[in-house]
Specification:
The chain has about 140 residues and is of the alpha+beta class. The protein contains six helices and five strands, in the order ββαααββαααβ.
Length: about 140
């Protein structure tokens, strides 16, 4: 099975992303666990929304226990480097233009990329984490 491609409309902008190859997906997952600790691992295994709520509170509360703001920002920025927004590949300039005074769209973009890459074991839990609801445009396998 090849890497999936997906397009989503987020806040009126069309985002396009290709799923990461297995080696990058695994490395990024390991970084998530390293940065976000046990809360992230617990989040992936919870079944009920009540349990998810407790895990999300723990996740947010412990986010900076193990990681500095710079480490978290660096990770999140790397997550979205694989997207195009309205046909333009993500860059430092586009990042500043797209997300200045528009942080909600940034978090929605992070959720879109993480869902594309980790939906097999996180399911809908990323929606709760980032409070993102994207509108599907299209999806296909490549």
């Amino acid at each position: 099975m090849g890497c999936r491609e997906e397009k989503k409309d987020i806040n009126g902008s069309e985002y396009y992303c290709v799923q990461w190859p297995a080696s990058k997906a695994l490395k990024m997952k390991f970084r998530m666990v390293q940065l976000f600790g046990d809360s992230f691992s617990k989040l992936a295994s919870l079944a009920t929304e009540e349990d998810q709520g407790a895990a999300l509170s723990s996740f947010v509360g412990s986010l900076f226990d193990k990681s500095s703001p710079d480490e978290v920002f660096s990770f999140l920025k790397e997550v979205i480097q694989s997207v195009s927004r309205n046909g333009v590949r993500m860059s430092d300039t586009l990042f500043e233009e797209a997300y200045s005074n528009n942080l909600k769209e940034f978090y929605q973009t992070v959720a879109f990329v993480l869902k594309l890459n980790y939906s097999d074991f996180l399911g809908g839990k990323l929606d709760s984490l980032f409070q993102a609801k994207e509108t599907p445009v299209s999806s296909k396998d490549s």
